[in-house]
Amino acid sequence: MSRSLKKGPYVDARLAAKVEKNKLGGVREPIKTWARDCTIIPDFVSATFLVHNGKQFIKVYITEDMVGHKLGEFSPTRVFKGHSGGKAKAAAGAK
Amino acid sequence: MPRIQGVDLPSNKPTHISLRYLQGIGPTLALQLCRQAKLDPQRKARELSDEELARLAVILDREYTIEGGLRRRINQDIHRLKDIQAYRGLRHRRGLPVRGQRTKTNARTRKGPRKTVASKKSVKELR
């Protein structure tokens, strides 16, 4: 179920303030954040965030297309490197 | 056979049923269209006059995205998700379910036929 329109998008207030401050100060430094649930609003466009994924901070540069998504969508929390053996084993089994 | 939007040829079924042969038109929209074009939904499609067909075509053209245009839009949406590196885009790329379903079992629609990996036991038996 999607969020009630009445409430408007959820934006982390402190994060929004920080973006605003950086913009005014002309600072182009990435903003470190844990607020993965924060919706990307048009004001964030062309800002850079370091979004925490539980382990590291993933650098996310905000483009216009990303508006309306949440920061966490761009910072994957899981690593899948493939199953053990994988291709090599499958080739050996075919012999 | 009547023809709307190029190649689509709905059959000799009631109008509201045959309209559903167009991609992007389901039960609700089909009835809504009949109402908009002031047609009897129960009349057979082959009884539609050219003028009535034209009326339908105009409404479809003006207000709805169907067929090729709809397919294109869906593709664009998926492409956009891939381009911006969103989680949903990554799932599309890997051919896995996009909306958080489990993948330990099931999810065969997205993953395709099972790729069985030989268990340790059966590998031993082979030797």
Could you describe the 3D structure shown?
Chain A is α+β, with helices and mostly antiparallel strands. Chain A is 23% helix and 14% strand. Chain A is built from two helices and three strands, in the order αβββα. In chain A, strand 2 and strand 3 form a beta hairpin. The radius of gyration of chain A is 19 Å and the shape is globular. The model of chain A has no long low-confidence stretch (mean pLDDT 83). Chain B is mainly alpha-helical. Chain B has seven helices and no strands. At the A-B interface, helix 2 of A face helix 5 of B.
Bin the helical content of chain B.
40-55%
Instruction: Determine the number of helices of chain A (DSSP H or I, runs of at least 4 residues).
Output: 2
Determine Rg of chain B (CA atoms, Å). Answer: 22 Å
Which regions of chain B contain 5 or more consecutive residues with pLDDT less than 50? none
What kind of oligomer do you see? Answer: heterodimer
Taken as a percent bin, the fraction of beta residues of chain A is 5-15%
Helix content of chain A: 10-25%
> What string gives the helices and strands of chain A in order?
HEEEH
| Mean pLDDT, all residues of chain A | 83
**What pattern of helices and strands is seen along the backbone of chain B?**
HHHHHHH
Structural Rg of chain A: 19 Å
Unreliable spans of chain A are none
Q: Compute the number of helices of chain B.
A: 7
Largest sheet of chain A: 3 strands, mixed
Structural class of chain B: mainly alpha
